[in-house]
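Lab channel / #folding
Pinned by the channel admin:
"Please post every new chain as: sequence first, then the structure tokens as a reply. Keep commentary short and put observations after the output so the thread stays searchable."

First post following the new format, from NK:
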Amino acid sequence: MGTLYQVPPPKSVQDLKVTILDSCLIFSPKENDVQKKPMFLSNIDQVLNFDVQTIHFFTPNPEFPPKIAFKMLKNALQKLLVPYNFLAGRVKVNQESGRIEVDCENFGVGFVVASSEYKLDELGDLVYPNPSFEQLITKKMDDILEVDGHPLCIVQMTAFKCGGFAMGLQTNHAIFDGTSIKYLLQNLAALAGDKPLAVVPCHDRELLAARSPPRVTFSHPELLKLKIPIGQEGEIEQNCNVYDTTTQDLDFKIFSLSGNDIATLKAKAKEGPTNGNGKITGFNVVSALVWRSKALSNYYCDNNNNNNNQEKKSSTMLFAVDIRPKLNPPLPPSFTGNAVLTAYANTDCEILEKAPLSELVDLVTEGVTRMNDEYARSSIDWGELYKGFPHGEFLMSSWWRLGFNQVEYPWGKPKYCCPLVYHRKDIILLFPDIEESNSGVNVLVTLPHKEMAKFESLFYNFLSS
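Reply from TO:
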């Protein structure tokens, strides 16, 4: 029941021996049609001004060797800059408002071609986020090419000796959330196959503008008031414990839950008492298990360090909720901006320790149902007044059901897709298993050694009890 990756798998390659073969900027083919007016970014976008990297691995397809596939991707990326004309722009600060916005001049997106001396199956276990995977991502174009500003999108295509390849994608989070990246990939794949767009994107970010005047109608304990100018994400990270990047010795482990494990958790949640509002989903039961283990591992370690003086302590778990269907009227599903807000679940550690799983699932469900139209609008308006930022004990970030591995390219679906992972002790990642037929999930946890030992013990005790 459940498996654990404690250290990098022994066959994992630590140096992929990647060589950059070519790099360029790709520009919109319709220069005169490029939007010149700066693109508005919502209050949700404002606090997400940082890059996100994902890697998409493809097995060999004799009909589409890397050289052919890379050419098709490059052409498709240029075509993509017509319906996504802002993607060739740059994030800049409006000096009058202090807000970030997108300068939509045709500055270009980055495209890099590289090769590795290894075969894809020599890389080892793709599920384990190998630090060497950073070599499959180009983070800064100005390291290899003279560019004007930092591109909103950089694509690196890396060929392996077997004929397989990896697509490393970096985008600015202020421009896309996970759902809109999925649609971007679907459109890129369609254009690569000379097909129409799979999804017509909606770029009207004014749909998530604050009300005038702003009306904060809830207390929003999940948000922290900031005293720094919006858009300065480096300082934000230093002031918000959810994005704690302090350098310390941290253990880095993956806890794998099978489809059977998740089914067992759901059965336990159904057996226990409930307030009738708990929705027993895979995400909710896994979140409840992880929340209990994470909060109590910290609680026990803190109290042991304080001469066992166990003070009453509460725990707040944060997680993202897609508000597209929550608003009234709903946002178009193809909305391309950030349409996710931070929901929260909070309770005392004593309850987390003793309550049945069903009660914790109720609390997670309450966090989701709380996010209705008025709560979401109040949260956006909070950002207008206070520059609110997520604030809690830890953030549960789910890549589990985004569906990146379901995108059908001319050469087939990816073998595996994963985020490029950084060690952050207050972010726990959920991402899918490599086997498409497996309904399991991987839980990536990064904690100080003592806390990790306690987390592991609690996790398996609660899973098996």
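NK: The longest strand covers residues 18-26.
TO: also worth noting, The CA atoms of residues 397 and 429 lie 5 Å apart.
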